[in-house]
Protein 1
Amino acid sequence: MTQRLTTRGLVKRYGSTVALDGIDLDVEDGAILAVLGPSGCGKTTLLRLIAGFLVPDEGTVSIDGVVVADKHRSVPTRRRDIGLVPQEGALFPHLDVAANIAFGLSRHERSGPRITDLMDLLELPRDLAHRRPAELSGGQQQRVAVARALAPNPRVLLLDEPFSSLDAALRSSTGRSVVNAIRASKATAVLVTHDQDEALSLADKVGVMDRGQLVQADTPNAVYAQPASPFVASFVGEGSLLTSSIRRERGVAYATCSFGELPLANDIPGDTALVFLRPEQVVVRPDPTGEALVSSVAFHGHDAMVRLVNEQSGEMLSARVDAPVMPPVGTRMAVQLRGSALAFPQA
Amino acid sequence: MALFTLLPLLHVVGYSAGVGLDVVRAELFRPRMAWLLWHSVALVLGGVALSAVIATACAWTVERTDIPAPRLWRALLVAPLAVPAFVNGYAWVSLTHAVEGYLGAVLIVSLSYFPFIYLPVTASLLHLDPEFEDTAHTLGLGGWATFTRVVLPQIRPALLGGSLLVALHLLAEFGALQMLRYPTFTTAIYEQFGTTFNGPSANLTASVLVLLCLIVLVAELRLRGRASIVRVGGGVARPPVRAALGAGRRPVIAGLILVAVLAIGVPVASLIHWMVIGSSTAFPVADLVQTTLTTLGFAAAGAAIATIAAIPVAVLVVRKPSMISTLIERSTFTASALPGIVIALALVGLVLSLTPLIYQTAAVLVGAYVMMFASRAVVGVRSALDHAPPVLEDVSGSLGLTSWGTFRRVTLPLVAPGVAAATALVFIAIATELTATLLLAPIGTRTLATQFWSESSAMAYGAAAPYALLLVLLSIPATVMLGRMASPAPQATRR
């Protein structure tokens, strides 16, 4: 596969603060990359550099192998052949749905079937064509914004937290239909989001950012199963970080923490480590002699998240239990750890 | 632009600093000065207080009680703005001389200017989430306690902002007070100008007037404090629960009718009365047409220049906010806070000392209009720009449009209505301006306002009526535009 979008050593500073600190990114032709990170990590800055609204202080942005931005020159946005879906859609309020979608098309293209094709693709009812943006629901507005951006067949589609203003139910259905439309039109997309569910469920590849750096870029599965750092581990999905000592026996390393012992998935040098446990790795049962106490329970319908506190160490551990066996707060529990744990060097 | 609008202030300060302490002492520390000061302050205090009471009571009654026909009342309570204060003064004094003096002056200027408080207070009541009032009721507060402890603190910025506007207008008011024979600094400056022409008396009195304006501005800033309304959570505010008036219904409605009759009924009836009498004696069509054309010409030139000058200032403030851009914007406000008479006086002084050739030309008059009303254009263009957030331009660029294409297809269609409205407001303000026009109009140039003034000053009430009527007609569009501020905006259905 060829690389559609590449950045190398991208740096952007605002005064003395470094917003982006050397970003190397590759997005293959036809892939959807989710850039995931907490607010202020620099993900929107990255998007604006790719779009050409900002000029990098160092490094390059290339599309189809051609450098479009470095610190000396920057191809203007309108010649980069990109599509942009901002937060809240930003539809042109003075134009109706059809005119919004047609905005980037030539006069000739506008008369063809392109607009209705795109409306169908994004599951927009055709009778919305002559509505004003103010008359649409939030989800519809986002779909129109995506149709508008896809209309001129951009080489890269950039989506800036496009679903964050929608409520939970609408978010997943809108997200799914948008991704289907992107795949159907074989577009390459970069989706910026702070929502890990969105990133894991919609993208082919997830890039996790923290304080201006890209800390891991891999498939959703790999990012979840093999996080590269404690930050990635706790930001993507839930889990607990526990201090533990390392014991090696016949070439196998075991971690011992206050809740028990389990083998390590990766051995690291030294005698101590931070181990990371997903809630599904923790099995609990009520036991009057157990060392863990239930400190809180969050009910999620199909299951529940139980927070345990170890009486001796004071450390916290999350466990997922089936809803019917939800223990009340204060119950004494026995803890069993399964699978293997990821170890990180102790900071 | 910023420097241009600062000229009058610099002139007044410079002049006062230049004449020497002895002259200042001789001019300022006179019993006459103290007497004028007392008159001006008393008028401002009385006028602002009465306006605030009328405006707040009316706004609360219309927005928060089950009064019939709230839309009609909203329109009627804004309508007084269509009658310039000097026309209102003429309408009353031509009917009865009982309105001359302090009480009459306070009553009539309040009837003319209370909509300046009514508008922002109504707008803020409409935006005020009724949740606050509901919460107060659940906490056991009664109607009056809810008003004083919950509603009043939240409409305070609007109330103070409106009061500031009224206070500045009262300090600047010339026509109405001259009609009502109530002397203030402004009428005194006009008379001093007439007798001594750009002498130290007029200029020094002007500097005291400027000082009063500054005191009002600072007082408002102090009182306003850092209070801001925080609304937690999104969503659209529900319509408020309207209090039942019950037994108080008849007196409350009677009170509203009284306000409407005094503020609108009397001036309109008086105008019609004099129209009927006046047209039997003289109805100079040619003169009317000529004067109207002159007025429209000046207004068009001033409005066009003010808007064009306002665009870069507004763009700078909205798109590149910084200390400097804010300073530039604020400097355009200083001239508008100064009374027209001070601006006129400063221009006479400046023009005579710098370029006497253009003295008494149309250019100077248009310059004065731009100084006085540039801030309104800036405010209007600024709010128009808010309709075109930069993200729309980003999207347009990403879709391959050039800057010109983006301007033509996105920015222009979005800001054009707002800019046109701003231009129209300035246009109308100029068309009905009296004070500066009287001082600066080239000899032989007559506008509707000055022609009205010369007729009514000569007690030719009938002859003045057609000009007054035209002034009212000219003011109606601006009044309608301002009135939209005080009506519930159609809610966009989002989400």
Note: The mean pLDDT of chain A is 90.
Protein 2
Amino acid sequence: MTVPASAAASPAVAQDASASTTPSPLRPSSAADVREIVADAIAHKAPLRIVGRGTWLDAGRPVEVIRQVSLEGLTGIVDYTPGDLTLTARAGTTLDEIAHATAAHRQWLALAPWGGDDGSLGATAATATAGPMSGALGTPRDIVIGIEAVAGSGELVRGGGRVVKNVAGFDLTRLMIGAWGTLGILTEVSVRLRALPEQEATLALRLPNAPASLAEFVTRLRSAPIAPLGMEMLSSGLAARLAVGQEHIVIVRLAGNADAVAAQRAAFGALGDVLDVRDSAWTDLRTTEPAEATVVRFSSTVARFPEVWLAAHRLAAAGDGHVHASVLRSSARVVLPHHDGSPTEGALELLRSAGRDTRIFERLPAALWPTLAPSRAVDRLSRGVRAAFDPHRLLNPGILGETLA
Amino acid sequence: MTDAADLADRLAEVVGPRGVLRRPGELFVYRNDGLPGYSKQPRLAVFPRTRDELVAVVRVLADQGVPFVPRGAGTGLSGGALADDVVLVGLNRLTRILSIDPVERVAVVEPGVVNVALTRAATPYGLHYAPDPSSQAACTIGGNVAENAGGPHCLKYGVTLNHVRALTAILPDGEIVRLGSADGEVEGYDLLGAFIGSEGCFGIALDVTVRLSPNPQAIRTLLADFTSVDAAARATSEIIASGIVPAALEMMDGATIRAVEASIYAAGYPVDAEAILLIELDGLEAGLEADVARVDGMCLAAGARTVRVARDDAERARLWQGRKKAFGAMGRISSHLVVQDAVIPRTRLPDVLAVIREIADRQRITVCNVFHAGDGNLHPNIGYDANDPDEQARVHAAMREIMAACVAAGGTISGEHGIGLDKLDYMSLIFSEDSLAAMCRLRDVFDPHHRANPGKVVPVHSCREWHGAPKAAWTA
């Protein structure tokens, strides 16, 4: 623990809210430290930027604050009994560390979010970041069973618990997941685990080019007698970058015991000429994004999914980017690399004129957030929730695009 | 001050004279829910037939500032649907399934649709609604949403929260809000997640969009019988730790088995067993037999006398009927019943069940266990005679001890039944005053005047700005 005493004593931080220099982040190493930091922020009316491990700082809307709170020091697995298939860790613990600990017992935490495993459990929960397995195995909303957090009011609160089923009290857990730290700083997260499959196989299949055949093909994919952990369509450029193909393809991750994998392999093979692909393609897919990029996710219905995939393609093509799409979730994700800090003008044009798709920006240049992604957390209930948990507006102010009074 | 007769007249203008109950004799049947032991008489009961009537009813109540309790089928097991001298809003007439979309695999239903009726309507499409509380033949989707209901198959398929994509709710002040989205993801706070399981304290669902699940290609239902609860508990812990995720893994102890077998729900359970496990495996046909063999092996290794697989759908249905009607069958044992709902880590099953047995012996009470073993969700049932104050006191003491043992094992006080009235006193065992106060503030966002289901879920003394649950102020 290096702060908050030193921060409070630093005039540049404590008194001059307009200071332009960013002091080194506060680094709490316990929930008690986090409480002190929040109490200090309340006392000095000094908002906090919660940065987790700082692996993906351009995600979410820009936040202008003086004090950063890094959770890099708030780490460690608090409780892991393999037979219970549950685990509790401090918020700054990396997904890597959890993967390492659970693999020793042939278990895993099935979050596998975009961005890889060097990020923290807390940030994954706070941003509700999912990944290519979420269609089959759930999102943080389904996988997190309990949280501990320091609310913006300074109170240490708990929601849920460490057991897999729990309806006790109002659901503070669901509320904190995806709140981007605006209700509380997560200090501890409990999750359910899964056993690693006995066997798995990743297979690839070429997508038809004609739009009409694509819709029919997707229907066949969805009704095939398989139970994949992931089923992701990849644009040709992305397939090439991952070295799994040269054309638009779909990759599936099959899992189960030997009989189950063999039967699914045969069932998937009936759809076309199937190629075996290395399992690490899934990890590569999660980590292949350029450091500087705009990322937007289009979620859709089953019926509109082929159309959304094609629209996502046009966007990716206009922005020299790539697209991948989850058949199980009917959602497409477009990655547009930046040139001079921004996507191409052609891509921006399409984004400005985009229609009624449910789209969620994950990363975007700071200046574009207000025009392209007006906040959706502006309704009376959302504002009330914010005021109930962060009455002084100290936590990541502006990250949800809310107007700051 | 509200004049009850005037209010009844105003409500009757909305729902018709037959939609309002006002005489004590008529209201008597609404004094209880599924958990005997609590009786609270509503002042009035109102039964809207349509969405518009429901909206109008809530707005009349808002206009008059009158507290109310939403009620589905009244099958809840925590006293959550009891209305203590306030207005009971019955939702069991809003029974329309508004749409079923087999392509998107969603259905939109009114809150009074009975759980199993939805699955029945989805059956022609090869789909079903996954959450299956034991009361599914009577309980409603609206009630399921309020309680975040589970059921045996939520071990693999998740609880209500995981199956609701969106809903429209009317807040206690009459405002209508849309939570979640049926068309895709939404950004911002998970208000839908907060609403589900809020036990009627945040408002009333007008319609609910639920996910329908494809029926599994293949199902195997196993019945393993044991000569001790301990052996069955060890088998459960083994199966869960092995990584196989059964669709359901249920345990019933000897007392429960014998009550069921003596009832009209007799399922063919071995009456000399001290415990049985009902284990269902489902999914793709390929690979299922291998899992059945592994589970069979683990049961035998833990000491099972026999493991048999249901031969056909009829036998499977009979095995499940015995399990789902077990609470009803316990009526044979005693006139009153309390049931707990604690959840413990799965590895702790053998020792916590032993502790419960020790508590029962010491307090000289009868505990029957029938529960979702795979989730660690215990349902110790204590039968008693409410006319025997001494026995009642021992039951009460035993309940507290059992709850404390479950919490000490790292568990929680409710897995699916909700807090309601029954578990209010236990909330402080698992939540700090700060956490309870935060929950109160969350409720204030939805219902600043605490008019919806007053006095439930969070102990009133934890709500720092509040002093006492609001009562309706009736004129004489």
Note: Chain B touches chain A through 84 residues (CB under 8 Å).
Protein 3
Amino acid sequence: MSRVTRWLKPSTTVYAHCDVPCGIYDPHAAELAARTVARMVELIGQIPAGSMEVADRQKFVRCVTVKEQHAEIVKHEISVIWSDYFKPEHLERYPDLHERVWKILKLAGKNKQNVDAAAAAELEAAVKEFADIFWSTKK
Amino acid sequence: MPAPWRVAVAEESMKPALDPGDWLLVDPTPDRWPRRGAVVIVREPDTGVLAIKRVAARPGDRVGTGPASVLLAEDEAWLLGDNRDRSVDSRSYGPVPLNALVGRAWFRYAPIGRIGLIGRGRST
């Protein structure tokens, strides 16, 4: 850097302030977590009813725990994209976005409370629709 | 800290009006701004970082944000980055008090090919 350039260079930096890391949002984690919830419901269903085998009980507890954790991941991932990524102009295109997010969060709660294949499938579908909306705003 | 009279731009949320690496002259006297469209240097409410944004609405203006709208107080402005998809601005941190504005960028003196006044229009 020449002396003149050094003399001209401002000592203050101002930030145009982008999202950091810039625009990296991805609903894939939510989809994967919803899939995991559904899979855990399936696995729980495969454990022989009333079995007192240690292996079965261990599997049961494990599946329930993973189901809970992943329902929580769905809630977290969806909430972040909803609050941080979506902007008012997206809402104009998808006026039911808030309603959809609310429904997903409720469904995630329902899946924590119950072992319910229908609710798990519903959650997966709702998250998939949310992801589709997300990607459509990227086009 | 005294208000800067020259600043260098980092990050891309004011593209294409301002590029990272642009060097700007700043008018640190706050009497006539914020005018709508003016490019201002602001101390960001949440972070305290010096940021550069454009005045989208002035004190007393009403700002529509989706279903709700905000009426700006007499000492508040609404700031947006030109590059809407990537910018963190009033849409995230809300109205900015006028005393957080530290200057208005009015002239680009480098790079040489881009020397000139900074307009009040958002070019997209």
Note: The interface with chain A takes residues 4, 6-15, 18, 20, 23-24, 41, 44, 49-53, 64-67, 81, 83-89, 91-92, 105, 109-110 of chain B (CB under 8 Å).
Protein 4
Amino acid sequence: MKSLLPSDPPPGPFRRPFWRSPIRGPWLTSVFGVLLLASIPVLFATGLLSYAAYNPDLSRVNDETPGKGLLGFYLFSWPTHPVWLYRLNQGVHVTLGLVLVPILLFKLWSVLPKLFEWPPLRSPAHALERLSLFLLVGGAVFEFATGILNIQTWYKFPGSFYPLHFYGAWVFMAGFVVHVALKLPAMIRALRSRSFIGELRTSLARTRPEPPEAGELAPVAPAAPTISRRGVLAFAGAGSALIALLSVGQSVGGPLRWTALLAPHGANPAGPDDFQVNQTAASARIRKSETGDAWRLTLGSDGQDGQPAAALSRADLLGMRLHTARLPIACVEGWSTGNQAWTGVRLSDLARLAGVAHPSSALVTSLERGGAFSEVVLSQGQVLDPDSLLALRVNGSDLTPDHGYPARVILPASPGVHNTKWVASLTFRA
Amino acid sequence: MRGLFHRPDPRRLLRWLDPRRFLRWLDPRRFTRWYGAGPLHLLTMLGCFALAGYAAAELLPNNAIGIPVWFAGAVIGHDLILMPMYTVADRSAMAVFRHRRPQLPAVPWINYLRVPAALSGMLLLIWFPLIFRLPGRFTATTTLSLDPFLWHWLAVTGALFLLSAMALAVRLRMGRARRKTRDRRRRRGPARPGRRTAS
């Protein structure tokens, strides 16, 4: 490399005096770094938990990433309590991801001179490190972009969301872990070089650049400051606070929902009493003729070679022992509804009726054809939970077509798409 | 290596194959000089690429062209397009307004422009699909309208600039009041030191 490239950097951003910001420096970078270091693992963990919540190990039907191999090492049977578990997990995952956008942008701004290092490759070690930075920065922007576009249902990314966001996260984390391992000592050193409280007390008039010897990021020819370090931190903090303020309402719901002015599910669909819909009956192409009087729920057990154990009409189901459970619907996209009062037949009662007293799992199919979640396999815990219902009514009225009329599954603590609407059949496995 | 093929010589070959020659590479100092960092660095790197490679082997088949393009596009789009764009916008704003008459106040006025503009831009960066009504099936699937998002964004942007203008006005007034009392106190005192202008 040394022989191919001039040892003197070409003019422009490759020379250190080009970077004139008086506040750029290792300390400021490290403050943003430590914020990301604390939050990215939470983002990653909630992402992995969300994947586990789909119970992908239970059946191929549930698994959007069947090639995961070792990356599914941690999977476990997703619990059904507390009922708000998935709601909290996804609210945190999506809102935290959005809130980190300004922090990430400031962090990337603060380290931009590193992109123009000269010579570009000093040694094999340096080359590998830069390649790992490509995974880190490319992976970070890829993960944020796919997540942010997916919650707006604008599917312009190159493939299906689940595999892209899941495998992309592992590529990003590979870059993240190695970056933390290499930079942690420098970060601690930089954070110790200045007092945080002291910086919060330093006004613009008294703001001085970090000395050039503090590190490569510190300016050698700084311009006069126009903003203090505490000003930049307040700037980034205001950005995060604003984003949170304008989006968290779609996860908190209730009277705060309207505050989510810039979030996909900040409005109530039909009126204050109605609640959010992920997919309407029309968009799932459910025909009126299929859900009318002719509709029957096919109950089966896995051992019967396709012979249904029973075919129940809605009137039959309403004549069974009904229960009411107060459960939310929480979408992978981060929005959720408050608890709704669902009334219907317990899945465990239907299992008994199908002749499977101790089901190990259940396959639910929908009238919807071809959708990614028109079939789902429920775990034993989900089938046997007393709050797991085949719901027929919600909040005292019959289900509307968009909420799954004539019958839908409702489960505690599970991803929204596992609450199958327009149920056609339930097949229990002993 | 070059000599080996240049002049075949069994003794040279033996010397070249001498296991001690390879063992010398295990000498940490020699390794470090060639590699540019310690062996632990290499081990960390190999771990990183092993994990990334394992995940990429499942990621790439989804779209072997689109995904690398997105990764590279993410880096180029951010580092070489978005960031230079907002840097140039920031510097242009400073340059344009600095030379305007009447002379701008000495407070760091640029921040009262920069902060609301950046926050509004950040919201646009995140929510542009909703704001520009791009998700074609949003209303059909959720029953929710896409119409309000543009107005919400404009209203939030307006509110940000309004708050910023109010904050600047308060600050200017406070500064003027402070200056007045100070001038009154040290009437005929030494000349006020020249204040640094924001730049």
Note: Chain B touches chain A through 68 residues (CB under 8 Å).
